[in-house]
Design goal:
Elements (H helix, E strand, L loop, with lengths): L1 E6 L8 H6 L4 E8 L3 E2 L3 H10 L4 E6 L5 H15 L8 E4 L2 H9 L6 H17 L4 E6 H6 L3 H4 L3 E5 L12 E8 L8 E6 L11 E5 L2 E5 L9 E5 L2 E5 L9 E5 L5 E10 L8 H9 L14 E5 H12 L7
Parallel strand pairs: 1-2, 2-4, 4-5, 5-6, 6-7, 7-8
Antiparallel strand pairs: 1-9, 2-3, 8-9, 10-11, 12-13, 14-15, 15-16
Helix pairs in contact: 3-5
Length: 320
């Protein structure tokens, strides 16, 4: 059995060395709840798991009363997890207390609303490059979850029994009364069906250090080619990163390729061109279309900047 744990601020301050020593192989950590609240222990838990090399995912407890509210929860979740390395999915957790809260707000959440809220949250998570997952128990499986809507998401299934009653789960929460040597209190314990989930293959768009890369089905980063997704075309450069702020041209084979730099702001211009452009700005010759200082809007292609350089060399801007 590949055994894991899920935790939140309700478990207090945790000793992750003891968790590792207990044979825990993965963790699902509550990132927060509702539209605004980050779990008090989230940062400590995600860092503690990382320090012990315990692969982690997160869950967000929902109090959504509309699809827009679910998307706002997803945005807050993404804000909370930004900068952390997640191996396991980001799970959407909507339970009985969520339904009670909605009723207090005058909203009745049934099967249709539950699935719409879940999908709204999870598609925001997917769009941000994370693996989305859904958490529910046997009752919700029977009465709330629609396979036609949620069947494509990783399932974290809760049933405190000798074995789960369903087969399409990836993680099974099998008890809420587990113990860990050296730690007080009771813990939710989980079983992982397929260990490959701890070693996921990155596919599709992934953001790294502020740049976007595209990985094929084998997890290989692509480069020097166009990628067409959702009706839009994107070019991947030599290093595999999405090319931005560039003009286009047809090469010798008739292929459409990036032609050179495109400088929206003066701050985008390479250092080698800046002395000339700064002189022209100061002289009032290069005004741009708006903005000031480093935020002056130029919207010039690299070829246009090179023409200015050639003009300067020919003496067109002598004395400036």
């Amino acid at each position: 059995m590949v055994r894991g744990i899920d935790v939140s601020t309700h478990n207090g301050t945790l000793d992750w060395a003891s968790i590792e020593a207990a044979g825990i192989r993965f963790a699902i950590i509550r990132a927060g709840y509702g539209r605004y609240a980050v779990d008090d222990q989230f940062a400590a838990n995600i860092r503690g798991a990382a320090a012990r090399n315990i692969p982690a995912g997160v869950y967000w407890f929902s109090y959504a009363v509309s699809e827009d509210a679910a998307r706002q929860e997803a945005e807050k979740c993404l804000e909370a997890i930004r900068g952390y390395d997640l191996t396991l999915p980001v799970f959407y957790d909507f339970e009985y207390d969520s339904v009670r809260y909605a009723q207090q707000q005058g909203v009745t959440v049934g099967r249709e609303q539950y699935n719409r809220f879940a999908r709204a949250f999870l598609e925001e998570i997917r769009a941000a490059g994370y693996t989305p997952g859904i958490y529910y128990n046997l009752d919700y499986y029977r009465t709330m979850a629609d396979p036609a809507v949620l069947g494509g998401y990783c399932v974290w299934f809760a049933q405190y029994a000798d074995r789960p009653s369903i087969s399409d789960w990836s993680i099974w929460q099998y008890t809420g009364s587990g113990t860990i040597a050296g730690l007080p209190g009771r813990f939710d314990l989980n079983e992982l069906k397929d260990e490959s989930l701890l070693h996921p293959v990155r596919t599709g768009w992934q953001q790294e250090n502020g740049k976007w890369y595209y990985y094929d089905e084998e997890g290989e980063a692509l480069n020097n080619q166009w990628i067409v997704t959702e009706g839009s075309a994107f070019y991947l450069g030599e290093d595999g990163a999405m090319v931005t702020n560039r003009t286009l041209k047809l090469d010798g084979d008739g292929k459409l390729v990036p032609a050179g730099g495109f400088y929206h702001l003066i701050s985008d211009v390479p250092t080698s061109y800046r002395p000339l452009l700064d002189r022209l700005v100061q002289a009032g010759i290069l005004r741009g279309t708006g903005g000031t200082g480093e935020n002056r809007i130029l919207n010039l292609g690299e070829d246009a900047v090179r023409v200015l350089v050639l003009m300067d060399r020919a003496g067109a801007f002598a004395g400036i």
